[in-house]
Amino acid sequence: MPALAAVFVLAGILAAVMLLSAGQANQLAAGRQELLAGTVLKQSMAQVAHDQEAVTVWDDAVQEVRRLSPDPNWLDANLGIWLHTYYRHDEAYIIDGEDRPIYAMEAGKRVPPRHFATASAIAEPLIAVLRHKLSNLDRAQIESQRSPGAVDLALVRNHPSIVSVKPIISESGLQPQVPGREYLHISVRYLDRSFAADLAQEYQLDAARFETEAAPLARERAVALRSKSGRPLGYLVWQPFGPGALMIERMAPVAAGALLLMLAIVAWLLQRTRRSMLQLEASQAQSQHLAFHDALTGLANRALFDERLTRALAQAQQRSGSVALLYFDLDRFKHVNDTLGHPAGDQLICEMARRLVDSTRSTDIVARIGGDEFAVIQTNINSVAEAELLCMRVVEAASEPFVLAGNQLNVGVSIGVALSPKDANDRTELARKADIALYEAKAAGRGRYVFFAEHMDDSIRHRLDVERDLRAALAAGDEMRVLYQPLYSAQAGKITGAEALVRWHHPQKGLMAPSTFIPVAESTGLIEPLGEWVLEQACEAAVTLPLDSISVNVSAVQLRNTKFAERVFEILDLTGLEPSRLELEITETSFIESAATCQPNLDLLRKSGIRIALDDFGTGYSSFSHLCHFDIDRIKIDQSFVNAIDVREGGSAIIQAIVDLAKASGMQVTAEGVETSEQRSFLQKAGCNSLQGYLLSRPVPLEQLTGMLVRSKGIRIADAVEISDLEASRA
């Protein structure tokens, strides 16, 4: 029976080889899965912090949380429940500069801020670390780079969790904050709920789960969870993929019943082993791809983008070449999410990614670095024109309508571009300047591209200087003053009202134009204390003046504040001015764009008898159809139309049409910027109710206006011009 013995010996040898191969394959697969699990945990910690940056590096968030009474619905929609809905964060908290909780969200529902007490002991070390970072970090870095943070693993309500703390800071750098006293956002992602299921599905970790105390069962693999301090939190446990065991399980019946076919079986085994190894290698390659690519679009993620940008800049320096970095931001993306839902938003992101890839070269690197943020690294460019051509292709591609959830939408894209070595050779600095250029593109009207220029840095610094000096001026109280420009009845020719205008006399720079500091005040929230001060000064003055009305300019920022009407009523009570003598002016464009949020205040103001005027009419939407939905008492024709009056051609048909339509709608009409007698005569004939301009009077101090009112009793407009000139010469 030597042959039989030989067969059994050969079978035994082959069985041993099979067992050894199976064990090695299982060990290799399990080891690679263990490495993958550890890597995924680290990346998940970074991802939670990155999710927070989508809403914490934002001017609106800074403004909202610092309000005396932040809007809880706004916090839900942007800093709390939205994170649970979109990113599946389980808990979120907001604390103020003194570490007091002002908001809490658990399991997708808003809860009282006191619930933070449960998580506070866990978050306190991270808060302390972040406060230290913020206190010792250069302020310019905070405002121009990604925000710092602190993240760790911890047990939260007996759940192993990722806990991340991020500061709520200004996106534009225009929101002043005391270093170390910023409001903080704490986010918690449980690892033993949907997170484990996601791991099992996305990374092929069968039966993945988290155990807080028990060690893994036999044939299971585990990665220990430890905090940065070394505290054990439990284990990530899964059933490892066993290609060798699977092979033996399938081959055992065949081997037992077919010893005579041993050679064929050996050949088949070798082939099967090779196939299993190839599958294992493919699985490893897939895991590597997932670690460095965006799961939704398949584009490079931020980690890969940073690595490729660093490499591209190093190669460009070696070869004396150039690199263009393009930052993209979808216009109106949040509106799409809010109106059509997150699936439509994801569809928009994927379609935009496809259009970006189609618009670029195969050598360019396209990445998704945030929710609706993309970037392109354009390498080996020979001129700025190549980057400009790419921008034009992308803008054109993005301008094509998107079909989302059965709706056709026009979204558009804004692009900021920075060039290396012209703008910077460092990755961080180049990204910062591309981000500044993107901000300029959005500020210029969106749907366009802007290349970084040094003056943009200067512009940001200038705005910060103006903001700092304006805060000091409001605190000092002796640099601001209010002037009054009279309004004259077009027919009777008498002073009927006055418009209050704020002026700033800077101690070093002299008289500051309103166009210099008013936009800064609006973007930083300073317009509210400034506007209230002007309103109070004007109301106090009007009480002593024989005027039908006093007009005060109001920003849309003020009208969006739910407490604005209440504050106006307090000032009227304080000064004793009758509501019917107060007229509030708001510019046409800002009013129409903010009408929905301004309307509640406008309703309350008009019910009390206060009048509303639409300033600079004709420079914005210029449509009476918009005004049909709003209660407006007066429109003020912009001086650009008045300046265009051509007496030789019969005046201005546009002004005549505006006056006729306004009167038909029951509105009063005031013409601004009247500077010549011919303009005055035409406007009188056209039917304007009142006139205002340098021909009649420049803005004057209160004392001078009082004198003009005393002397103007019974005096018509023609004589008022001479009185105004005389008063100006005396001043």
TrEMBL record:
Domain of life where this protein originates: Bacteria
NCBIfam families assigned to the protein according to its UniProt record, in alphabetical order: GGDEF
Domain GGDEF: 321-454
Stretches assigned to the EAL domain: 463-713
Keywords on record: Membrane, Transmembrane, Transmembrane helix
UniProt xrefs under InterPro entries: Biofilm_reg_signaling, CHASE4, EAL_dom, EAL_sf, GGDEF_dom, Nucleotide_cyclase, Rev_trsase/Diguanyl_cyclase
Keyword Membrane belongs to the record: yes
SUPFAM superfamilies for the chain: EAL domain-like (SSF141868), Nucleotide cyclase (SSF55073)
Pfam families, alphabetized: CHASE4, EAL, GGDEF
GO molecular function, one term: catalytic activity
Xref: PANTHER family: BIOFILM ARCHITECTURE MAINTENANCE PROTEIN MBAA, DIGUANYLATE CYCLASE DGCP
Spans through the membrane: 251-270
The keyword Membrane belongs to this UniProt entry's keyword annotation: yes
The protein's name: Diguanylate cyclase (GGDEF)-like protein
